[in-house]
Amino acid sequence: MKTIGLANLASRRLFILKVVMVYPAICLWVACSLFFLPTTSVAQEKQLSIAVAPFKNLMKIREIDWMCEGFAESITTKLNYVRRLILVERVQLNELIQEIQLGMSGITEANASNVGKLLNADFLVIGSFQKLDIKSGSTLKINVRVVNVSTGQIERCKAVSTKGPFESVFDMQDMIAAKLANNLGVGVTEKEMRNMKTDETVSVVAYELYNQARNEKEARREHFLNRALEYDPNYAKAHLLLGSCYNSRSMFDGSLEAPALEHLNKALELDPGLTEAHYALGDHYYRKRNDYRATEDQQEKDAIKQMALYHFEIFIDCKKDSKAKYYIRKVEKAMKKIKKIKS
Fold first, then answer.
1. Which 3 state secondary structure label does DSSP give 162?
2. Which of 34, 39, 312, 313 is deepest in the core (most CB within 10 A)?
């Protein structure tokens, strides 16, 4: 009996020892799991959809109208570096503005919520600008407000305002983008902050000329773009737009084929993210394939086909999920052209 009693006592002691040592370990494992797992879900929950409306020109001076879309695009580009923000494409936003015929009034506090809902956005950023020193035109004031789409209310705690010389416009845009991201509560990593501070050009003059070019007709557009590239030869967006202009006109003027290719390839070299350059290059080689001036050399013809396929396929891969009708149509065109090339 004593032996059985001692055995039971030893068994109980072993059980107590296991409970004392193993139970805390299990608790610690569960606690760590609970601590670390929500981090991923929280990051996912904090991913917000943002649309940046064209800024409003409070001065109503036509010469600075280029800032309306220029500023909105720059802020959109910078915010797009933040992983937890999903930016509505500018093409999609501008399509909607035209569809619902907002006209000269544009997106205002009154209609911002409805516009945001149509875009499936959580927040809509609306901004305005004015030049305070009219004579010199050097002092710029920018105000940015954030509309909560679900409530339709302007969240004043998220508003950003800045003022400074026009020559510091890039620094002002950096500050606005950083504060917006911070005010939206998504947090910005050091790497994202560095990327946000990357400007599309080193020259404020080139930036102004490029954005003016976008509002001009073809001949004047090329004039402005060439001037922009004089101030900054490495301005990728200017190379893309100028190359696209030359590419369109090369259908009627063969002498523009070489400069079109030069500018489009330079745009991709400087910024591989400019997918529009891939479509333009794909279209160029697609036309060249059917051009009566094309070489009779079969090997060169095959190379031209491969170049067209290469650029079209990259464009489709990058834009296949776009919600903008402009890109949906272009993807469809690219797919049809690929089918013809392969047939």
1. strand
2. 312
* Total count of residues recorded for the chain: 343
Task: Give per-residue pLDDT as tens, 76-104.
Answer: 999 999 999 999 999 999 999 888 877 65
In 3-state terms, the chain is what percent helix, strand and coil (to 5)?
65, 10, 25
Residue 269 maps to which CATH number? 1.25.40.10
Q: Output the pTM of the full model.
A: 0.82
Q: Tokens in use for 70?
A: 């220029």
Cα 36 off chain centre by: 31
> Any idea which residue has 């983008």 for tokens?
177
Residue 104's domain spans which residues?
48-196
Proportion of the chain above pLDDT 70, given as a percent? 83
Token couple for 155 = 């969240």
| Residue 179: exposure state from Cβ atoms within 10 A (0-12, 13-18, ≥19) | middle
Do 165 and 86 share a domain, yes or no? Answer: yes
Contact assessment for residue 330 and residue 319, using Cβ atoms and an 8 Å cutoff: yes
